[in-house]
Here is the input.
Amino acid sequence: MLTVEQYLARERVGRRLVAGALGLLLVTLIGGVIDAAPASMVIGIAGAIGSYILWIPGSLKIAADFRAMAANFLGFLALAIALLFAPRILLLEHFGVERVCVVTAIDVGSSTNHRTHTRTPANDITLDCPNGRFEIGGAYHTPIRGDQVPVTFDVFGVARPQLTSELAGSTWWMWPATCVPLGLLVWQLASIPRRRRETLRRLAESDAKLAAEREA
Here is the structure.
């Protein structure tokens, strides 16, 4: 059984780890939404992995309501993955403006899945649009130079634009996939003050009992 002093020392470490995990979760969100270059996605993926690595030991050291450990770990993992992909797609889907652009250049390429030994198109397209020139990387479609193609931009100018034909057909499932683990995280964080009081009271009673037994 921990003493109060030992618990408080452990809690300080846990709070730092949890704060770091939440900070990297924000990095994951930013990298996934911007997705303007390969580096953005790499940063987002690194943020998701780092946040999960920090969250596991951090959540075990603080007095939050983490009695369902499987839900804690799987919920945070689901949230990190969802924040990496879903917000950008939802931003384009619900706050998107479609503009017709002209293909000025295309660099035809592909990516290889070494596990299945399959190749998928990954084209880099340069577009002249009414609001400027843009580049889209990793496109599946292969338009011809001079083609006019519809492109979706978000009204805030944050997310990387995408060919309208390559937007997800159905996005309703992204809302529960993001909101459910996010709600679980908020509930867990909100439980910290109550659980901390209960833990400190229990440890104080244990310390007092041990002190009384030593005196006896």
